[in-house]
Amino acid sequence: MVDLKSQYEKIKTAVDAAIHTVIDNTTFINGPEVKAFQADLEKYLNVKHVIPCANGTDALQIAMMALDLKPGDEVITADFTYVATAEVIALLGLKPVLVDVIPDTFDIDVKAIEKAITPKTKAIVPVHLFGQCANMEAVMELAKKHNLFVIEDVAQAIGADYTFSNGTKQKAGTIGTVGCTSFFPSKNLGCYGDGGAMYTNDDELAKKIRMIANHGQSVQYVHDSIGVNSRLDSIQAAILGIKLKQLDSYAAARNKAADYYDKAFANNPKLKTPARVKNSTHVFHQYTLQLVGVDRTKLREFLASKDIPAMIYYPIPLHLQKAYLDPRYKEGDFPVTEKLCASVLSLPMHTELDVETLKYITENVLEFLK
């Protein structure tokens, strides 16, 4: 699904040198590489504060802790997403409120958000799924109307640009109260271990986030709040600093691959290609098809026999996961999500896909559909 080795070979000299520098200096935690990457990412995103942390799940948890959300507070998010989005809500004793998504774009349905808001609602977590932004202008209007926090889950869409109706642009994750991302190796901007970050333009919130991520310390051995231990190590920061310089070219390569897929599958009644929204660029973390009248299991088995991986993101809706069963929800309550979980299939998507590989993948998909 992701060819990290070929990608590494193109930047091997720079990456190896950066890793050796960290080892030679023995500044493994909070070294200059972390500070340099933080500054570079702030500049790239045009955001005041980037606070690195250990992983994307920690980023979501720390952000919610910093917003002083209390047990019982309701947090609205999409039913069609990776479990981490809802996991941290439940972990903190908050109440996950799930809503359906838009069938063409996979993004959270703003009309469903509005219907789900109650006096207990404190925050919305829009997920920029598969690489393009949710309808952030509408989300922010709702948040302002109801005095809600907006925590952007941007783990799959770092680098995407959102354009507002007045023509202004902002990077995904910099629009809401706080943005949370992951640097898991397979992400568009991925390290060679675990990593994550939060970003915000709110000075006071940034201060609280930094404190919570560092055991609740304002200064060493002075603990003003209950915190956690979550930090990005210097080796990962050094790698990310190199890859950040390639992020836009990586997105261009992913779009080129997506365009090839789109053209190959155009007008095939058994395949629905991913929609692009007009107000967001797409960085294609995943290329996800919707199958129409196709046996998904047999297609995956056929592709596997041809050494072509294919993944299902995600096979079970959150509301039907054992850990998140809730008397408020039952099968059939989220028809779009349930249909997507039964019909989506993601094909290989990464920066190293060449025409020969794309041709092989698409020809085999079409061969099965005959």
Structure description:
It is a single chain. The protein is of the alpha/beta class. The chain is 40% helix and 15% strand. The chain folds into 2 domains: 241 residues, Aspartate Aminotransferase, domain 2 (3-Layer(aba) Sandwich), CATH 3.40.640; 122 residues, Aspartate Aminotransferase, domain 1. It contains 12 helices and 14 strands. It has a 7-stranded mixed beta sheet with strand order 1-9-8-5-4-2-3, with helices on both faces. It has a 3-stranded antiparallel beta sheet with strand order 12-13-14. A two-stranded antiparallel ribbon has the order 6-7. Helix 6 links the parallel strand 4 and strand 5. Helix 2 packs parallel to helix 8, helix 3 crosses helix 4 and helix 3 crosses helix 7. The longest helix has 22 residues. The relative contact order is 0.16. The model has no long low-confidence stretch (mean pLDDT 97).
Could you list some keywords that capture this structure?
single chain; 370 residues; alpha/beta; Aspartate Aminotransferase, domain 2; 7-stranded mixed β-sheet; 3-stranded antiparallel β-sheet; 14 strands; globular
